[in-house]
Amino acid sequence: MVEKHRTVSRIVGILEYVVHSPNGATLAEIAGYLDAPKSSVYGFVRGLEAEGYLKEGEAGRFVFGLGAHTLLASQATSLVELAAPVMNTLGQKLGETVTLAVFLDHELTYVHSVPSNQRIGYNPEMHTRRPLWPTSAGKILLAANDDPDLKSRVMNSEDLEEAFFDAEIESVRRNGYGLNLGETVADVSAFAVGLKIASSLAAAITVGGPNVRMRPHIEEVVAITRSVIGDSGLDVWNF
């Protein structure tokens, strides 16, 4: 018989308790379930929150975070199930690569992608954590978030001037979408729009392809994307 590990058992217990709590769970409730002092549970809960596996909501209640998609991306997760039909339609209409990004605190990861049907297209690396900046999806999260600590962290890690950062984020809020014009891959441009689920920014759908095809038609392609998402019954995140 395999011997249990106390730390692993506590982490698994926290996740199992929270995911089965419809309204989330407070630190005190989690500690009570584990029959452990709040002081010993606090570090585990905050660590899971930092990794994106828990998210603190209203009244200090923790809910299951989107970080689980990093592990479950190969399975039919609810978020992918919701977005996949829309992404397939967009792929057929636009002919470019369509990708679903989920946010993990100060990072993001791509959990599902519909490849371009063109001979030359963008192929993003999947299921890998990457910084928010300068991705188009990351700019969506930054524009929707007023956390000064997150802003400082991104600016410091990317060595960005505050005026440049603020102007870029204001552009995202004004236009309603994030742009990455060759900042990650020189020959590739992409945009992203946020997905709103239960009043929260749950993820972003990005469309990316070669500059020569994307840049002249960004506004048109964004409009098509927003229309397809709206027609599907999903909500686009508006600033």
TrEMBL record:
GO molecular function: DNA binding; DNA-binding transcription factor activity
Residue ranges annotated for the HTH iclR-type domain, each copy included: 5-66
Annotated keywords: DNA-binding, Transcription, Transcription regulation
UniProt-listed PROSITE patterns: HTH_ICLR, ICLR_ED
InterPro entries per record: GAF-like_dom_sf, HTH_MetabolicPath_Reg, Tscrpt_reg_IclR_C, Tscrpt_reg_IclR_N, WH-like_DNA-bd_sf, WH_DNA-bd_sf
Signal peptide: none
Residue span, IclR-ED domain: 62-239
Source organism superkingdom: Bacteria
A Pfam short name: HTH_IclR
PANTHER family recorded: HELIX-TURN-HELIX TRANSCRIPTIONAL REGULATOR, ICLR FAMILY, HTH-TYPE TRANSCRIPTIONAL REGULATOR RV1719
Descriptive protein name: DNA-binding IclR family transcriptional regulator
